Amino acid sequence: MVVIFDRLGYFFHETWISVRRNLTLTFAAILTVAVGAMLVGLGLMARSASSNALGRWQGGVQFEIFLQPTISGNQIDALGLELRNHPDIERIQFVTQKEAHELLQEILVDEPEVLEEVAPESLPASYRIVPRRTEGELIESLAAQFRQRPGVYSVETGRQQIDAIREWFNSFRWIVLLMSIVLSAASVLLIFNMIRVGMFARRREIEVMKLVGATNSFIRTPFILEGMLHGLAGGIVGAIAAGALRNHVEDLFGKSEILAFFRSFTVSSSQFNTAIFITVILGVVVGAVGSAFAASRFLDV
Amino acid sequence: MIRFEKVTKVYKEVTHALDDVTINIDKGEFVFLVGQSGSGKSTILRLITAEEVPTDGHVHVAGKDLTRISSRRVPYLRRNIGSVFQDFKLLPQKSVYENVAFALEVIGRPKNIINTQVPAILELVGLADKQQNLPNELSGGEQQRVCIARAFVNRPLILLADEPTGNLDPITAQEIMRLLDRINQTGTTVVMATHDQKIVDQMRRRVVALANGKIVRDQQQGVYS
Question: Residue A301 and residue B77: Cβ atoms within 8 Å?
Answer without folding.
Answer: no
